[in-house]
Amino acid sequence: MKQNINEITKTGYVALIGRPNVGKSTLINKLLDQKIAIVSDKPQTTRRSILGIKTSQKGQIIFVDNPGIHRPLHKLNKRMMNFVYSSLETCDLINLIIDSTQKFGHGDQFVIETLKEISTPKFLLINKVDIIKKEKILLIIDKYKDLLEFKEIIPISALKGINVDALEDRIYDYLPEAEKIFPDNEISDQTQRFLLSEIIREKMLSHVSQELPFVTAVYIDQIEDRQKRETSKSSAPSEESANKKKVIYIKANIFVEKDTHRRIIIGKQGHMIKTIGTQARQEMEQILGSKIFLELQVKVKERWRDSVAVLDLIEDQNL
After folding, report:
1. Fold assignment, 192-318
2. What are the tens digits of pLDDT across the range 91-125?
């Protein structure tokens, strides 16, 4: 029997946190069985907190995918960390995700120190257990249980879905009884504009390296419904043979900090920007179910990561 939104049930916010590139976005996509967060092997891919809403007969879990915890160097990074701190202050449960294939380092210690002053219940999720030996998992458990108090320690594979269902079951045990916050069919708080900008950025990240992932941002400047007139090939154009088909025109700006960055993204004879645009357009068409005309422009904005005006512009896409 379907529950109404106002019925008392288990509901709460669950923060997914950890160092950059530990699999937070991969996990939230797997938990929701739908892509709501872009995924990349580049650091600091996630730049703001994204809500993923999972509603079941047991209740409603509002997962919060956060930027990776790191020491901020720019205004952009400070905003990213503010999202993390806000999530930690307001959530009902913290899921700390670690990459089991990486050695414990200063970044991991920084995360532990960040969490020590927070009394919210915590889970430790040991990710990528599908590619390491069981003995290593046991060593990781021994190390972390002495560093911080965890209510649960769960080995998982966000990519393969190992123990993801078990994780969801355990989460409900720690959530308060409360009314559901979101309608049953809602899965994210993202705006369409923000999602489209992230798709472009994801395709761009898959083709660039070195410092470029840190110095690029995408802003959707325009989304407009247009009509494309299609004419039958078997007859001459006429009022009867010409049909109108919906086309969504999207204009996006890619911000970089130097002209050298701009030349790399455009590529030789425009090859790189064409590849990025084609891949982004194909995914957008699947999501929107419509023909897309995508126009990309690369603009140089020196030190945009420290520009309040540019950061506000980009952030406003999700309002």
Report:
1. GMP Synthetase; Chain A, domain 3 (3.30.300)
2. 999 999 999 999 999 999 999 999 998 999 999 99
